[in-house]
């Protein structure tokens, strides 16, 4: 068991890297897309709607392939082997940003209109209203669906194999084939379960800390 864990170590770090970097880029990008989606400019609204529709309506694996091969077929740009990693992060970030954008929008629209009116009476600017009043309430409301997406992301990291990028599950399959044993796949399954358990626990603690009204 210990030897298998050592063999899978690099895959574990690769999976963690994809997970962390995807969240770092997709969470704020999702907020930007939300602002565009809720813009009063119809053209911007439609651009955001089309983007979200494409990202949610096509397979993530296809999107990864487009990000990786697109520069070559569209512009004739030859990219290095290391671009595989960047393509994985770009593809994941663009995909998850679309989901987070809709979650954020639902959270913002769930805030009563009276909150905006009260802020205006108090002399708050639109930026102050959002940062001090709307955003904290939105974050609290969207924690459960965001948690679901984050947990899904842990499992989706295995799709990086589409670009021949070796993450946890891909490496586990390789080791299993080499050793003619299913044990590496079992270890990988345990890793994903523990990882998801920790993510769910951390998100639950964050959610509890925001139950300030109690």
From TrEMBL:
**Where, by residue number, does the polypeptide cross the bilayer?**
12-36, 57-75, 81-101, 182-203
Where is this protein localized, as stated in its record?
Answer: Cell membrane
Record keywords:
Amino-acid transport, Cell membrane, Membrane, Transmembrane, Transmembrane helix, Transport
Every copy of the ABC transmembrane type-1 domain together lies at 12-203
Membrane topology term: Multi-pass membrane protein
Tell me which InterPro entries the record gives.
AA_ABC_transptr_permease_3TM (IPR010065), ArtM/GltK/GlnP/TcyL/YhdX-like (IPR043429), MetI-like (IPR000515), MetI-like_sf (IPR035906)
- Superkingdom, according to UniProt? Bacteria
Q: What family is it from?
A: Belongs to the binding-protein-dependent transport system permease family.
How is this protein named in the record? Amino acid ABC transporter permease
């Amino acid at each position: 068991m210990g030897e298998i864990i050592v063999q899978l170590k690099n895959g574990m770090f690769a999976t963690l890297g994809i997970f962390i970097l995807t969240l770092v880029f997709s969470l704020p990008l999702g907020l930007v897309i939300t602002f565009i989606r809720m813009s009063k400019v119809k053209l911007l609204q439609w651009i955001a709607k089309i983007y979200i529709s494409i990202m949610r309506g096509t397979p993530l694996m296809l999107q990864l392939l487009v990000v990786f091969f697109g520069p070559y077929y569209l512009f004739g740009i030859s990219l290095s082997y290391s671009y595989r990693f960047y393509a994985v992060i770009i593809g994941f970030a663009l995909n998850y940003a679309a989901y987070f954008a809709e979650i954020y929008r639902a959270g913002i629209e769930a805030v009563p209109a009276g909150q905006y009116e009260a802020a205006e009476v108090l002399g708050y600017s639109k930026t102050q209203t959002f940062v001090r009043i709307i955003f904290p309430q939105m974050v609290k409301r969207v924690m459960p669906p965001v948690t679901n997406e984050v947990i899904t992301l842990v499992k989706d990291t295995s799709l990086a194999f589409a670009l021949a990028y070796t993450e946890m599950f891909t490496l586990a399959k390789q080791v299993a084939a080499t050793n003619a044993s299913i044990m590496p796949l079992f270890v990988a399954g345990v890793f994903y379960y523990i990882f998801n358990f920790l993510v769910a626990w951390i998100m639950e603690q964050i959610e509890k800390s925001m139950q300030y009204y109690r």
